[in-house]
């Protein structure tokens, strides 16, 4: 029986495989261990394939991060723009997104910290991190503004949104590092309880 020919990937699929392999390599080997050799070895391809699609390791990692960040921002916007439900319910859905298996598994935090470490020596990657934060900040401001209006409380949504974002990022990071300390449902409830207390305190102080 003749051997079935292996289907040849098109250029877009090859490029996508390299981007995913870069993220997987960061999670597996860390920023110091993830190099062209490791990425290509795990894919069983020659280093020449990587340099065919990318100018070098830095450009590969920058694009790999940007793609991951864009997907994340798109998921945030999908939650925030769902105006068929209340701002409160959208915010609870946002909490659920943050602590979903997809965004809080060990591989994700490994990849994220790897990108962060690389951003300290790759200026363009650091700029990409800053851009992502600004997009997050704008999205949070929109949702917090809707929540403040919905609750009819007098709180400046901009600093409120920034602090909420920083708070949530910190809780997410700790949850990823120590997943067995607090279960996913409990941590979402605690985040909401904190938010309720904050709104009550700030709202009362401005009356």
Automatic annotation (TrEMBL):
It comes from Parasedimentitalea marina. The keyword DNA repair does not apply. Pfam families: TetR_C_6 (PF13977), TetR_N (PF00440). Residues 12-72 form the HTH tetR-type domain. PROSITE patterns: HTH_TETR_2. InterPro entries: BetI_C, Homeodomain-like_sf, HTH_TetR, Tet_transcr_reg_TetR-rel_C_sf. Residues 35-54 bind DNA. This is TetR family transcriptional regulator. GO terms for molecular function: DNA binding. Keywords: DNA-binding, Plasmid, Repressor, Transcription, Transcription regulation.
């Amino acid at each position: 029986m003749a051997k079935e020919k292996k289907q040849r990937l098109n250029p877009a699929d090859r490029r996508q495989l390299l981007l995913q392999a870069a993220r997987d390599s960061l999670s597996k080997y860390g920023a110091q261990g993830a190099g062209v050799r490791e990425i290509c070895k795990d894919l069983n391809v020659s280093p020449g394939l990587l340099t065919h699609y990318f100018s070098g390791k830095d450009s590969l990692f920058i694009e790999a991060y940007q793609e991951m960040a864009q997907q994340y921002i798109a998921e945030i916007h999908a939650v925030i723009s769902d105006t068929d439900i209340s701002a409160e319910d959208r915010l609870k859905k946002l909490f659920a997104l943050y602590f979903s298996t997809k965004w809080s598994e060990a591989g994700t935090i490994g990849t994220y910290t790897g990108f962060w470490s690389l951003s300290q020596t790759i200026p363009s990657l650091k700029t990409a991190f800053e851009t992502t934060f600004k997009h997050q900040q704008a999205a949070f401001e929109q949702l917090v503004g809707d929540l403040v209006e919905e609750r009819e409380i007098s709180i400046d949504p901009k600093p409120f949104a920034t602090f909420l974002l920083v708070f949530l990022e910190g809780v997410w990071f700790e949850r990823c590092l120590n997943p067995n300390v607090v279960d996913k449902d409990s941590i979402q409830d605690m985040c909401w309880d904190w938010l309720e207390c904050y709104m009550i305190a700030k709202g009362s102080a401005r009356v």
